[in-house]
Specification:
This protein is mainly alpha-helical and about 190 residues long. It has one domain: Vanadium-containing Chloroperoxidase, domain 2, CATH 1.10.606.20. It has helices spanning about 1-15, 25-30, 40-55, 55-85, 115-130, 135-155, 160-185. The longest helix is centred in the middle third of the chain and has 29 residues, at about 55-85.
Length: about 190
């Protein structure tokens, strides 16, 4: 385990070190929970769902997405508090070696990234919902989720393992929500 954490720290230092002040504003914006990118992605996903499935199903999809995102958020908070791995920007061994782009580092603990799990749960759920009818939308959603996830490493607030765990769990939650939609949503006419 120590070797994995050491490799994780080295990878963070390398990837975070690739950053440049001229690009910081882009990654800061991608990392905002409510931004001019995120809100339209949410809205567009719901609008496309409405167009394809109708009002009754889009209400069900919206409720399902809210339950899914609430679950991923609470799982992330619970895990961070339980594992208590310091964020890189609070870790005294490396905090002076990384570029912490926002001066505010966030909560004290980092494992695992709420941004990664939330963005990938949302992207996975809607990619699976829309994939058969809109072939480019799922690709765009996954690219958006990858950029949001990577922004956390770029900004120096998460280790790569935090982000990778969030991505994998987000895919699982998005897949579970899709399964619920296919099972229960079929009864909604």
């Amino acid at each position: 385990m120590d070797e994995l954490l050491e490799l994780d720290t080295k990878l963070l230092l390398y990837l975070n070190g690739l950053g440049s002040p001229s690009w910081d504003f882009i990654w800061l914006y991608l990392s905002r929970t409510l931004s001019w990118i995120t809100l339209p992605i949410y809205g567009l996903s719901l609008a496309l769902s409405y167009r394809l499935f109708g009002i009754k199903k889009v209400v069900f999809i919206s409720i399902l997405a809210l339950v899914m995102l609430s679950s991923t958020e609470y799982l992330s908070i619970f895990t961070k508090e339980s594992i208590a791995r310091l964020r890189p920007c609070y870790n005294p061994e490396i905090k002076d070696l990384i570029r912490t782009v926002p001066k505010y580092c966030g909560g004290k603990f980092s494992y695992f990234s709420a941004h990664a799990i939330n963005s990938f749960a949302f992207a996975s759920f809607f990619a699976l919902l829309l994939k058969n009818r809109l072939k480019y939308v799922p690709v765009a959603l996954i690219i958006w989720a990858l950029l949001v996830s990577y922004s956390r490493i770029y900004l120096g607030v998460h280790y790569p393992l935090d982000v990778l765990t969030g991505i994998l769990l987000g895919i699982v939650f998005g897949g579970l929500a899709n399964r619920v939609h296919r099972t229960v949503g079929g009864y909604i006419k």
